[in-house]
Write a structure and sequence with these properties.
- By secondary structure, this protein is an alpha+beta fold.
- It has 1 helix and 12 strands.
- A 4-stranded mixed β-sheet has the order 2-6-5-4, with no helix packed on it.
Length: 182
């Protein structure tokens, strides 16, 4: 009986080893087949590029199975001077993959403000507070908030918003006087 159990255990171990070996080769075979059908491995399936920044589609290639990245043919219509959605196509032999590339403006405007003194009769314009305003796109500035601090002294919040919705806010002081500014 002990001898019979030992033989049975030995047989089970052999078949278990054989089964593991078969599973390993099936998985490896499937992996090789998959990679032969999808040879380009990209770092990501979609990408974004900052407005007015460099875009190099070759940088997205992580690995090319059975080949080299230099052998991949790349076609793109990405224009980093204009916000929008674009396509980049990677082709290696018969395999093609298309990637969406979005050009975005995520940088807020640069805004520098100055304090301003005005007559109590003067209608104050936002431009009176702006020392410098810069952005990659068109910017609209406005007086966002005005809070009275003391008699004839106001804390003014200036808001600059670009076409992409990026906002910068800065504070300045408005002093009101009885006399008209000359």
């Amino acid at each position: 009986m002990v001898e019979e159990n030992r033989k049975m255990s030995s047989t089970i171990i052999k078949y278990t080893k054989l089964g593991c070996l078969v599973l390993f080769f099936l998985a490896a075979g499937w992996g090789i087949f998959y990679l032969s059908q999808n040879p380009i491995l990209l770092k990501q399936e979609s990408a974004f590029v900052e407005l007015h920044h460099k875009y190099d589609p070759k940088e997205a290639i992580s690995y090319v199975f059975f080949g080299k990245p230099k052998n991949v043919e790349i076609h793109t219509n990405v224009d980093t001077e204009k916000v929008g959605m674009y396509k980049t196509t990677y082709t290696y032999h018969d395999f093609t993959i298309e990637v969406n590339v979005e050009v975005r403006d995520t940088n807020p405007p640069i805004l520098e403000v100055k304090d301003y003194t005005a007559s109590i009769h003067e209608e104050v314009q936002v431009e009176s507070f702006i020392k410098k305003i810069e952005d990659e796109t068109e910017v609209v500035a406005e007086i966002d908030y005005m809070e009275k601090k003391k008699e004839n002294e106001y804390l003014v919040t200036i808001k600059a918003k670009d076409q992409s919705g990026n906002v910068t806010k800065k504070k300045a002081t408005l002093w009101r006087t009885e006399k008209a500014k000359k």
